[in-house]
Amino acid sequence: MSTTSPLVVIVGASGRLGSAAAIGFLSNGYHVVGIDRLASSDGAFPILSVNAIDESSVQMTFEAIRSEYGVPRVVIQTVGMWAMAPFAETTLSDWKQLIDVNLTTTFLIFREAVRLMTASGGLGGTLIGITSRQGSERGVSQQAAYSAAKAGVVRMVEAIADEYATSTINAHALAPSTILFGSENAQDGVQVEDLVAHCLYLCSDAGGSLNGATIHAYG
Fold first, then answer.
1. Cβ atoms of residues 43 and 11 within 8 Å
2. pLDDT per residue over 61-103, tens digit each?
């Protein structure tokens, strides 16, 4: 199925941030395809199934997107998890899980997106990864694995932007503090609508001048 609207792929589209991003991009004229653990076809946009920490699953899902919907111009990776534990009590399993869910997923998703965006003289596109204050500024007590994974997202985005600096690939990292979805009592945080607005700006022509930057959105 072809479309004249730019195609955006939202990874983690069933989550609160992913679904908010999908709604925001839909309302701004984008064609949206989501990917998440469970497929769905009964909402405002289709969601394809993916195991985001499995290489072959990510590859097959992006090939299905290319075949059915075309090459994405925007890919936003919202999949992640947070956990904390004293450093000396952090198990190898705990470490690997946080690295895989936060960093390895981003690597696999972005790599497949770049392959499609640059194939056969492709038009390029925009990649947006979600990091955090812990990853963009400094690590936090009892969050060694999470801090390391989110810092890895920042460095990977910078590396992608540098490698493709002369092409039409743009890569950005968005670093929120606490994300507020409307029901929290917390005063220190950033509204999810503001994060979506930042994503939309990063996908604009003007946003391209920020290639490789980490956008701090602390509220």
1. no
2. 999 999 999 999 999 999 999 999 999 999 999 999 999 999 9
The span from the CA of 173 to the CA of 159, in Å, is 12
Pick the CATH number of 7-217 from 1.20.1250.20, 3.30.780.10, 3.10.20.90, 3.40.50.720: 3.40.50.720
How far from 158 is each of 131, 133, 174, CA to CA, in Å? 12, 16, 12
Read off the pTM: 0.94
DSSP for 120-189, written as a single string = TS---EEEEEE--HHHHT---TT-HHHHHHHHHHHHHHHHHHHHTTTTTEEEEEEEESSEE-SS---SSS
Residue 200: helix, strand or coil by DSSP? helix
Which amino acid is located at 53 in the chain?
I
Give percent of the chain above pLDDT 70. 96
Asked if 98 and 83 count as a contact pair (C-beta separation under 8 A), the reply is yes
- Residue that has been written with the tokens 């460095």 in this structure: 155
Delimit the domains of the chain by residue range.
7-217
Lowest-confidence pick of 33-47, 53-67, 174-188:
174-188
- Note the residue count of the chain: 219
Question: Alpha-carbon distance 54 to 17, whole Å?
Answer: 22
| Alpha-carbon span 217 to 48, nearest angstrom | 29
Contact criterion met (CB below 8 Å) for 177 and 169: no
Residue in 76, 113, 82, 106 with CA at minimum distance from that of residue 198: 76
64 within 8 A of 70, measured Cβ to Cβ: no
